[in-house]
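Researcher: Good morning. I'm working through a list of sequences from a screen, and I'd like to move beyond sequence-only analysis. For each chain I'm collecting a predicted structure so we can compare shapes side by side. This is the next one on the list. No need for commentary yet; just the structure.
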Amino acid sequence: MGQDQTKQQIEKGLQLYQSNQTEKALHVWMKVLEKSADLVGRFRVLGCLVTAHSEMGRYKEMLKFAVVQIDTARELEDADFLLESYLNLARSNEKLCEFHKTVSYCKTCLGLPGTRAGAQLGGQVSLSMGNAFLGLSLFQKALESFEKALRYAHNNDDAMLECRVCCSLGSFYAQVKDYEKALFFPCKAAELVNDYGKGWSLKYRAMSQYHMAVAYRLLGHLGSAMECCEESMKIALQHGDRPLQALCLLCFADIHRSRGDLELSQLKLHCLSESIYRSKGLQRELRAHVVRFHECVEETELYCGLCGESIGERNSRLQALPCSHIFHLRGLLAGGQGAPRVPLGYARAQLA
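Model: Good morning. Structure tokens for this chain:
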């Protein structure tokens, strides 16, 4: 496979990936690795594979391709390529919670002579290092690294990097329990997405919305938390972002726990887990969550007394009567009772 054909196949894979045909994109890129002799093309496709496996939560595969990318960069004898591959290696270890290794590889990046570390990629290296320090609970070092990454973003007009740093700062302040700042920074990230993010991946919007949801929950603004978390989950499901789906599930559970809706918390977890496993075609896991969902429904007696269907399985309009019995609104209307229409989504089910 020649240089031009390699470029075409990489672009074809990117188009498939951007249209959410992830497995087809991976197949195209793997074919490039098998057939192409173009080292630069192989390096680029390895970067695509690292990113794709990161977003799918396949961190061991991500690490494997990052290591191969380093070997390719050494063959190319190019310091810039070597910097990029070490950054991917640092990110892979960050995802695997190997934070000491992440810091070490980031320091290797910054120590490489004659590279773009002082300009294009330096901010990303500092961000990864900050995330690792945060994982190690070294808060002062984490903040120093985030502030350095933010300076890189401002000096280079890199709004995308600034968005990512703001989300990390949201996590930082949530951990040190300054909840106002924990909300401020992801709100700033959301503003950047609105102002500059027309050509960005939707993952940036999903990321900012998730961090806003966490902060709103910590501040006790549970309605706003639910709205942000639902928006983040919608995008994560659309793009097959499994790590973010998992984070959203935990956030939903925390929101319901904060409300005291322990049963609804379990229902939400099983319902969304069912959707995830259904999209992946994992039948055994799917059946397990379907069974647990219906067990939870039975335990909480969430059945419509008119139509007999379960309440909470899908978005539907409900009506709470003065006696505290809950019915599907369509059942009441069919029974001739002109009850007022009360929109009440499953995730926000709260009865006054």
